[in-house]
Amino acid sequence: MITLKKIQPTDRLKRAVATLSGTDLDVCLQCKKCSSGCAVAGLTQVRPAEVMRRLHLDAGNALLAADLVWTCVSCETCSARCPMGIDVAAVMDALRKLALERGAPKPVGNVPLFNRAFLKTVRMFGRSYELGMIAAYKLGTGKLMNDTEKFPAMLMKGKIALLPPRGGDRKTVERIFQNVKKGPQA
């Protein structure tokens, strides 16, 4: 059951999310197919359908602190299941961006740290570099020795590489990062 508190809209979060995501939020039918297919819905207090409903009602900035905004793995199952073609994953990306811009309360856990570590390696190498990402993440958490016993087996099975990947088009990736920084093009 979705419970909403009556909140006066303050800064039109709905409009900002619609602009950033390029999605028409008003077409949501509340069929909840996005929630039923969500890989992390069972781990969060807020489900994708509730996020969409809160946005539809323009229920204020409290949504920026929702756990789903940071737990979403962008698998796009929600977007694929939506009968109205709403890109729910893009909505989650827009909410994450707005949460950072507006200084929303940080979520419990290390999801934002993991996201930053991943994006940093993509920006540096043009692709994901797992070893670099793991190193940045572990430095950020301060738990350098956790799970190190798994490293030799992963290395022997070819699941992780010592050297960064070659062949990533760094110029194209850098252009993507710059375009994202600028925001949507009119």
Quick take:
The chain is 50% helix and 0% strand. It is built from 10 helices and no strands. The N and C termini lie far apart (38 Å).
Task: Annotate the secondary structure layout.
Elements: H1 13-21, H2 33-37, H3 48-56, H4 67-71, H5 77-81, H6 88-101, H7 111-125, H8 130-141, H9 151-156, H10 170-182
Report on the structure:
By secondary structure, this protein is an all-alpha fold. The protein has ten helices and no strands. It is globular, with a radius of gyration of 18 Å. The model has no long low-confidence stretch (mean pLDDT 85).
Which structural class matches the secondary elements? mainly alpha
Give the tally of β-strands.
Answer: 0
Oligomer classification = single chain
Mean pLDDT across all amino acids: 85
Task: Note poorly predicted spans.
Answer: none
Shape: globular
User: Would you list the SSEs in sequence order as H and E?
Assistant: HHHHHHHHHH
Main β-sheet: number of strands, strand sense, barrel status? none
Q: Beta-sheet strand percentage?
A: under 5%
Radius of gyration: 18 Å
Number of H/I helices: 10
Q: How far apart, in Å, are the first and last alpha carbons? A: 38 Å
Helix content: 40-55%
Main traits of this protein?
186 residues; 0% strand; globular; 50% helix; mainly alpha; single chain
